Amino acid sequence: MPSYRHRRALIAIGALFAAGPAFAQINTDIIEKHRADLARQGSDPDMKRDATQPRDWNYDLPQGVTTRVVTFYVDGGTALHGKLFLPRGFSAKGSWPAVVVGHGINALSIGIEKYAARFADRGLVAMAIDYQSYGFSHSGSDDIRLLEPDPTTDASAVTDRHLRIVMKRTNLNNVHEVDDFRAAISFLQGEPGVDAERIGIWGSSNGGAIVMAVSAVDARVKACVAQVIGTRPMPRQPVAIADANMEDAIVRVRTGQGAETEAGFSFRTYVDRWYLTRNRDVQPGAWLDQIPKTNHVLFVPAEKDELTRGDSGAVEAAKFLTGRGVTAQVATLPDLTHFQAYSYTGFEVGSTLAADWFLKYLGTGSAR
Fold it and tell me: Which of 126, 247, 264, 311 has the largest count of CB atoms under 10 Å?
């Protein structure tokens, strides 16, 4: 009688290939190679996480990899922050595949730069980005908010007043983040040395939901990796607005600012309550039937993920995609919870699998 874990592996493999021919996949032996270390990470009290920590963000820049901070623009001119990681031997006259790397909910690009560094170490151009209103990026439509009533009226053509303001930050808006990823793709396509036809995207946690939506609406994406996210296929549902949120929505459109609520994991801040409604517009499971066959999707869930309840959603999504002829694979990180994927062996295994996937379906660079 096979063990529970062995049965899970057999079920996942069967789910991936029962609906159609077996597509070429990457080798996942690295998971077995490090299974004992992953089990240790899953049980060690010092390695437990209910959020990523600054010590999880640290990394050493690989030898020969260079970086450059860039600014790119979205939605009529909002300036976004990106950090480019260029591989050893990179030449602006060459042809290199490139990957956009995006963070999760209420996080910062600093926390996932080490993934971009790892991808560059493997020979890929990578760019870690801050979504609008995060980190070093500007805030789009909600940069500035008055802290007191505006006394001006149309009775005077010009009024001079000194009013207190607050710079509004961290608008949790998945719809905007889809646009941010697409703007980053355009930036990379215009970067000398990048092959515009070989672009991939990587997102983790809520960023994993975003990359699924981007994959569905943007055919430029040729490879996608979604880490620690469940995207169980489901039909699109109309977004119902609870009474409390409806009241807030009315106040928001009439005054320019609604209520705020606390949110976040790695750090907590007060954000617009409207995100509880707005983010439901992006339903990643409902986008799966629009992902084209030219894309290739890898899911890297965590077996004991407390937020997504394990890997079952990823397995269902991969089965659905393969049934439509889209190359897909699931590589589950055993014994780990959601936030353990970002550190120690979880990071080593997950980043290696992601790099393997991008290299397989985007190819390698050439300095020409």
Answer: 126
